[in-house]
Fold this sequence. Notes:
The structure holds two protein chains of two kinds.
Chain A: H1 2-17, H2 19-42, H3 51-61, H4 66-84, H5 86-104, H6 108-120, H7 128-136, H8 142-164, H9 171-181, H10 184-204, H11 211-234, H12 240-261, E1 270-275, E2 280-285, H13 303-309, H14 313-318, H15 324-327
Antiparallel strand pairs in A: 1-2
Helix pairs in contact in A: 2-3, 2-4, 4-5, 6-8, 7-10, 7-11, 7-12, 8-9, 8-10, 10-11, 11-12
Chain B: H1 4-20, H2 22-27, H3 32-61, H4 63-68, H5 75-141
Amino acid sequence: MTQLLVFREHLQKFYQKYTTFLNLLFRFIIGFIAFSSVNRMVGYNTAFNQVSVELLLAAGSMLMSGSVLLFFTAAFVVAHIFYVSRVLALIITVIFLIFYFGYAKFVPKHAYIIFAVPIAIPFHLVHGIPIILGLIMTPSAIVPISCGVGIYYLLQSVTSVVNVSTDTSINLYQAVLQQFLSCREMYVMIIVFSIVTVVVYILRNREWDFAFEIAIFAGAVANTILFLVINYLFNINIKTVPFLLGMLCSTAAAWFVQFMRLALNYTGVENLQFEDEEYYYYVRAVPKMNVAAPSKRVKRINARHFSEHVPGLKDEKDGTKISDENER
Amino acid sequence: MVNEEKIRIMTQIALDETKRYKSEIEESGYYKSDYIRAHVISVVWNLTISYVLILFLVALYHADYIFVNVARLEYGKLGFAVLGIYAGIVILSLFFSYFHFKRKYIKSLSALKDYYTKLKKLDDFYMQDQNKEEAVDDTITGV
Lengths: 328, 143
């Protein structure tokens, strides 16, 4: 544990030292993942569906703020769909605008969650999002998670309808909407993620030792069991091995986030009781774990200094014979 | 000579202004009633746009039916339903947003107390400096 805490300290110091560079790097990575995910999902326009374009846009996203990146990603999606159907591009634009005016404008931070969910689903890492949000937010996180899942399955419906239909009229929109509303996987995902978020939120607020870790574990177990049972009962096409691997990685990611955010030392718990004019207080204080990272001091011994302390060696360097005095 | 305490306070103020209380400071210039009114109007406006867009999607979905039955549609009932739902949304949003922004304004004011205390401390430093300068001026002129 101590080594992990030291590692955390080193990581924090490293981030503090290279904040500017690392922030740019993270923006580049997030931009690249976002634009390449869009290309994998709805990459109809061959002019945009290229690694060079993804890299170019990711480089551009280094200069963008978070909200501008969201706007460009949404525009990128619309540009791809416009290539195959103008009607569907209009519909998707209107849906994005409804999200913006009706939701993201009031809670801008939730827009990032809506953005992250569709990107994380193909990598099976989405299972970590309700666990993490249950740890750091309130159950209100269910709303952006559900919206994110909805957007992913809306784009999936668009791709599946466009792949089989040659129609370009308004019927395409009806087909997409029918496909979207009949998608059982989406409903299952929304319900399970809502349950997991609430379970994690309730458990992490308990006064237990290791409440956060228990919440993560319980969230992961609940998520796994619910998905497997529902898959067994209703056959919603979950591939067990990738799902379990994704679940494992998601749980590890959630634990890592929690560890970096807050590590508590439950061996040093103090239970205090005191009172004032109005109340009697029972306080449980858990100290945070903090370890000072050992700073390695490397003492350099160069040839010059070394030679100064070794009799004879200096003479050899100067071209004279070593330890003449000894020979005598 | 550099006054460390003064620099510490100035750094904290700069942090407050750029990160910690950025939105609170921006909104602190409003009177309570103006603040609530502006935000409630913004909420109603945004929800109106969203509602119109949703209506557009619904109309587009039923476009075939609408075109076929354009002469037989009961526009009175339809208009009443559309306006009724809109009125419901507006009333609910007015109610909730009024109390939400009222609470938010009070919260942001209490959060800014800390920021104003720092400003007061900084002001005290400047006052002290000014008093010192005036005292020096007196000795020079010999008054």
